[in-house]
């Protein structure tokens, strides 16, 4: 079985504080993985280690069977695209210019942009619904629109693995649904391996084939959504009970909203 990402005995300390403690997990090629867990569990740090945005870890991380420490930055960018958390990231470029920058791993030094690069950018803008904004400065867009642009850049990068850190946080339901659809299509049609950090447990259960839950820097759960959405499992990870019910269309167990207690 081909593994897109294979992590073994990963340990990370920042400022003398342990962040990840002996994490081992293998992510199959073409899978759709949600990484969940309480705040401070190490989710973003793990994602950043895979993308080599953090280099001070110990252990082993392999991407496509090759140790990431032996892969050059440009080659790694051909394999892995990273989309950070949604927020106030502003850039002095137009939408098209920013997405075009994601093609750098495929260009030789000082080589001009070619027809294939322009085609990849145009396709990514079309798929994310951002083609109509192509000549707009990024700082004139809403937060949801900007997040779609950054996802378009990841698609145009043409990497087999997409790492996304809370891609729908702070977004309205319409943009959130759009982004979920974009990622589902990338997984289903392009075969992209998707690893995303999320606090939306229902979305994780409905969209993803596997769930990885971290707790205090260790693996607390790794398996299918139907096993994760279990009262005992959720209480063990989050330290509280949840009201669960069956989704009316899929039958998948989901967390139901509750009125806050006084």
In short, what is this structure?
The chain is of the alpha/beta class. The chain is 32% helix and 26% strand. The protein starts with a strand and ends in a 7-residue tail after the last strand.
Folded structure, characterized:
By secondary structure, the protein is an alpha/beta fold. It has one domain (3-255): Rossmann fold (3-Layer(aba) Sandwich), CATH 3.40.50.300. The chain has 9 helices and 12 strands. It has helices spanning 43-50, 73-79, 95-101, 115-127, 143-156, 173-188, 201-207, 225-228, 231-238, and strands spanning 3-14, 17-28, 32-36, 58-63, 66-67, 80-83, 161-165, 193-197, 210-215, 218-223, 244-246, 253-255. The strands form 3 sheets. It has a 6-stranded mixed beta sheet, with helices on both faces. Strands 2-1-4-5 form a 4-stranded antiparallel beta sheet, covered by helices on one side. Strands 11-12 form a two-stranded antiparallel ribbon.
Secondary structure blueprint with pairings:
Layout: E1 3-14, E2 17-28, E3 32-36, H1 43-50, E4 58-63, E5 66-67, H2 73-79, E6 80-83, H3 95-101, H4 115-127, H5 143-156, E7 161-165, H6 173-188, E8 193-197, H7 201-207, E9 210-215, E10 218-223, H8 225-228, H9 231-238, E11 244-246, E12 253-255
Parallel strand pairs: 3-8, 3-9, 6-7, 7-8
Antiparallel strand pairs: 1-2, 1-4, 4-5, 9-10, 11-12
Helix pairs in contact: 3-5, 4-5, 5-6
């Amino acid at each position: 079985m081909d593994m897109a990402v294979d992590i073994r005995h990963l340990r990370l300390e920042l400022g003398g504080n342990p962040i990840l403690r002996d994490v081992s997990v293998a992510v199959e090629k073409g899978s759709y993985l949600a990484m969940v867990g309480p705040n401070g569990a190490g989710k973003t740090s793990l994602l950043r280690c895979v993308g080599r945005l953090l280099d001070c870890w110990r252990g082993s991380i392999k991407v496509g069977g090759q140790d990431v420490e032996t892969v050059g930055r440009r080659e790694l960018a051909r394999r892995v695209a990273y989309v950070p958390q949604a927020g106030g990231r502003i850039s002095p470029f137009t939408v098209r210019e920013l997405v075009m920058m994601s093609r750098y791993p495929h260009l030789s030094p000082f080589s001009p942009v070619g027809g294939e690069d322009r085609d990849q950018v145009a396709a990514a803008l079309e798929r994310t619904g951002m083609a109509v904004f192509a000549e707009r400065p990024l700082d004139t867009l809403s937060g949801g629109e900007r997040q779609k642009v950054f996802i378009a850049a990841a698609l145009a990068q043409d990497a087999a693995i997409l790492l996304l850190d809370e891609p729908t946080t702070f977004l309205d339901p319409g943009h959130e649904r759009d982004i979920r659809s974009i990622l589902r299509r990338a997984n289903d049609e392009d075969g992209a391996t998707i690893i995303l950090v999320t606090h939306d447990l229902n979305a994780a259960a409905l969209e993803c084939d596997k769930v990885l839950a971290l707790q205090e820097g260790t693996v607390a759960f790794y398996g299918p959504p139907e096993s994760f959405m279990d009262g005992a499992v959720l209480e063990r990870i989050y330290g509280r009970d949840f009201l669960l019910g069956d989704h009316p269309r899929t039958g998948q167990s989901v967390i139901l909203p509750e009125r806050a207690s006084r």
